[in-house]
Design brief:
The complex is a heterodimer of chains A (about 325) and B (about 300). With about 325 residues, chain A is mainly α. Chain A is built from twelve helices and four strands; from the N terminus they run ααββββαααααααααα. Chain B has 14 helices and two strands, in the order αααββααααααααααα. Chain B has helices at about 5-10, 20-60, 60-65, 75-105, 115-125, 130-145, 150-175, 180-185, 190-200, 205-220, 225, 250-255, 260-290, 295-300; strands spanning about 70, 75. Chain B has a two-stranded antiparallel ribbon with strand order 1-2. Chain B has about 300 residues and is an all-alpha fold. Chain B has a domain at about 80-250: MetI-like (MetI-like fold), CATH 1.10.3720. The chains are: A mainly alpha (about 325), B mainly alpha (about 300). Chains A and B meet through α1, α3, α4, α5 and α6 of A and α2, α4, α5, α6 and α7 of B.
Chain lengths: ~325, ~300
Amino acid sequence: MNFRRFTALLAGVVAIVLVLIVVFLAAYAWPAVRLNGFHFLIDNSWNLGRQYGTPITVNGQQILPGAHYGILFLIVGTLLSTAIALALAVPVGVGAALFLAEGVPPIMRSWLSFFVELLAAIPSVVFGLWGYVVVIPFLGHHLFPFMIKWLGFIPFFGGTPGSGYGLLTSGLVLTLMIVPLITATLRDALVSQPASLREAAVALGASRFETMWTVLMPAVRRVLIGSSILAAGRALGETMAVLMVSGNALNILPNNIYQPISTMAAFIVSQLDSAMQDPTGMAVRSLAEVALVLCLISIIVNGLARVLLYYEGRQAARPA
Amino acid sequence: MGLTAVDIRNAPLPAASGRVLRRRLFDYLGWGLCALAFLLLSSAMIWILVVVFLRGFSALTWNVMTHVTEGTGGGLLNAIEGTVVLAFGGILLACPPGLAAGIYLAEFDRGRLAPVIRFLSDVLVGVPSIVIGYFCYITMVVALGWKFSVAAGSVALAIISLPYICRTTEMSLRQVPRSLREAAYALGAGDGRVTMGICVPSALPGILTGILLALAISVGETAPLIYTAGWSSYLWTGHLTNEPIGYLTYAIWAFITEPFSSAHALAYAAAFFVTFFVLVISIIARAVLDENAGWRRLRPWDKRKA
């Protein structure tokens, strides 16, 4: 076998891994998919059933009596926390990228950017530790009561502050984890825009910020969208940090932004121990279905972002 | 006497109209908000580092590094050992396909396979690590009967590191000038000789950095290990399967929620080790990978182009 074929063969491993993940998850989760049907996504109850009951047969599958698997609260929790994170991360990411691209002298730029982008290198569980130890007490005792007092008239901002574990806390921690993705990509794109764009804008009398805002930002719009989608993909799948600060709600939907939630990724970690107690194995298979749903969502989201960014890259590479 | 630049500079500005004021306000407000965004991020970063390093440093004792965990106290020797074993196991498994895929993408990229591999590996980066962990749980821990083990944990970490190694290898090989390859081919070298003898050695710093980055990611991972490697308070006895193993990130997660201060100390110490290691690797990687930034900027006499 020649060298070229040999590398192609080993390279195929990289391609096949993703396919294998989806296929095996789907195959393992298949009995659960048959049992739960479409209600899996719209029902709001995750119930393992009576542990010591005699297994009964439903839809041809053996389950514990009273068992029911519905993950609406997880889908809502995942989407809401991601939405909050994205809503906060995009403005902050854009601001920081503009500041780093144009607002600091070039000699400091690379080190300041590096410092901020190091946030992406901090492991998820360390974010969780930080959130658990210092952020939750601060939010629960100081910021949340303050927000309820002054912003309580806005829907979902009022109510009781709770303990600090919850939707907004997860959103805030997720924000910090995904901002560097947006900032880094956007800053690179801003710096690499052709100088002629800048010169043209300045020649027309635009100030420096007007140049950035009205000329360069529209030019990197697609990069911003692509990197935001990538960031959303990361927020959807974050596990440890969310697990440690979300409050791990079970079967309830939040009525305000301070209430506990749970996300699909965090739920898999927090529930596998109890799911393994199910003698019929259906709980573990239903968790595999959660993983499958999460996997498919992240494949769609990431695929979309990559297609957008590839298209942008190809456009940038084309001679003007 | 004609008009000079000084006259122009000293000419009185027209009185600021509403429009000018509005524009100036927009300018200040814009820069102010941008600076605020940057300040928010950097203060969060500093806050995290201060918490982890101050508390972690005060929790570091000799015992932590020389004793195994006993209940919720003792040391972290088992976890440090486990993290090293798992991370190196993952890298060892990920290197052959990762490097080969990188070489294939950079050197032999003209078939239909290359865009597919690139796309799939980019999507694989975005697949949540817990999904990869669960995949390894149902296939290796359950179906193959390996139980919680070094083997299952290493495979999980290998899958996570694979796309990073692949893409950094590709990127570093692309930096090697084309003329080098042409010269080697002209001298009659084959594909293997040109790649392994010429291109890979000149791209080695970048490739090694990619591997180091993958190592940092492996060391910081928690979720995929919880149900593949398990946890053990004892030192590893060398079995690849059927023997759970401890690791530092588990100690952070599990011990901070315990009510005992001895457990908290272990969690902080573990966080200190993990964060310190990850930061050091990130700084090295930054210095090597980003040719336009980092050390190069501090050495203006070095005129090499990226």
